[in-house]
Specification:
InterPro entries: HTH_LacI, Lambda_DNA-bd_dom_sf, Peripla_BP_I. Pfam families: LacI. GO terms for molecular function: DNA-binding transcription factor activity; transcription cis-regulatory region binding. This protein has 13 helices and 13 strands. By secondary structure, the protein is α/β, with parallel strands linked by helices. The chain folds into three domains: about 60 residues, lambda repressor-like DNA-binding domains (434 Repressor (Amino-terminal Domain)), CATH 1.10.260; about 130 residues, Rossmann fold (3-Layer(aba) Sandwich), CATH 3.40.50.2300; about 130 residues, Response regulator (Rossmann fold). The strands form three sheets. Strands 8-7-9-10-11-13 form a six-stranded mixed β-sheet, with helices on both faces. Strands 2-1-3-4-5 form a five-stranded parallel β-sheet, sandwiched between helices. The radius of gyration is 23 Å and the shape is elongated. The protein starts with a helix and ends with a strand.
């Protein structure tokens, strides 16, 4: 017996796409629609109208998978506020499931949301790779949208920050003003936002020929106390540091506190990545890379709304960090 999964596999599309073709939703390109219908004709797939109807009626939920590491980010409260507001505005039930910073736990979380008949699932994964998430998108009956995860295949299902332009400019400035002994503080565990930042920094450093010996990584948790202790450790070790880059503003606050306590004659150049623009930073001598995570979340919800209303999909926007230079 031919199943919908067989049709999706032979047509090279997701189960959700096959479902939209069968329901008559005007969100599929003519070429894709024809390919799916041709496969249905070739395989003799029999549409189960009763099952399809029940599926359409029950898929009134929106799912949100949040990995444990996201709890520690500054934008987490905004994520919950915006998704809750979205669910209320569209008369949907919001189902939130969490997962440890572990790929298997994230897989189980996605499966739980699929079992809850979610029409759309928003995923903020820090542990699963893009390739595996792409495969889940292909076979899932739900429409899945990834927040801050780059996809090569099915890019319309992903929204991410392109750090490269601002990091290139940052490395260019560090090189031009001969800032040696650069310390970069953050949580560099695989899949974390800080890991993406450091990978982009390494790429920029290679491109602009900034020697690897000029910068070093200082792993620390994404909070004030960890930043303070990491900076205190650098200073007590008599390590010469001409520039400090922190991957979020909570680490930066801890670094600032440590510098204030040590009362060193010349403070290093400070650069921080700001996940939600903090107006307090406007009055401090710090260079800021602003990352507008609320806009990423709004764009993800905009895509979800289009799917709920059977509207045509829109091209994915490119979000870029904005480097604000104050001191160099």
């Amino acid at each position: 017996m031919v199943k919908m999964t067989d049709v999706a596999r032979h047509a090279g599309v997701s189960i959700a796409t096959v479902s939209r073709v069968l329901s008559g939703a005007n969100v599929v390109s003519p070429d894709t629609h024809k390919r799916v219908m041709d496969v249905i004709a070739e395989t003799g797939y029999a549409i189960n109208q009763t099952a399809q109807s029940l599926s359409m009626q029950s898929a009134e939920n929106i799912g949100l998978l949040v990995s444990e590491a996201v709890y520690k980010t500054r934008y987490f409260p905004e994520l919950i506020r915006l998704t809750t507001q979205f669910a209320q505005e569209h008369n949907k039930k919001l189902i939130i499931t969490d997962a440890r910073a572990d790929a298997e736990d994230e897989r189980q979380g996605i499966a739980r949301l699929e079992n809850q008949q979610c029409a759309v699932i928003l995923i903020m994964s820090v542990s699963m790779g893009s390739a595996e998430l792409g495969r889940i998108i292909e076979r899932s009956a739900a429409d899945i949208i990834l927040i801050n995860k780059r996809l090569i295949q099915n890019p319309r299902h992903a929204i991410w920050v392109d750090y490269q332009p601002c990091i290139l400019r940052l490395v260019e400035m560090l090189t031009r003003y001969e800032r040696d002994d650069i310390a970069i503080l953050g949580d560099f565990s695989p899949g974390t936002p800080d890991c993406e930042i450091i990978e982009q920094f390494r790429c920029a450093a290679r491109k602009l020929k900034l020697p690897r010996s000029k910068y070093h990584l200082v792993p620390c948790a994404r909070n004030f106390q960890a930043g303070r202790m990491a900076m205190s450790g650098l200073l007590s070790g008599k390590k010469s540091v001409s520039a400090v880059i922190t991957c979020n503003t909570e680490i930066y606050d801890g670094v600032s506190q440590a510098l204030s306590e040590q009362q060193i004659p010349v403070s290093p150049l400070l650069i921080t990545f700001d996940e939600i623009y903090d107006p307090v930073l406007e009055h401090q001598d710090v260079n800021v890379v602003v990352i507008n995570y609320p806009e990423l979340i709004r764009e993800a919800l905009h895509k979800a709304a289009a799917l709920f209303h059977n509207a045509p999909g829109t091209d994915t926007k490119v979000f870029r960090g904005n480097l604000i230079l104050r001191t160099f």
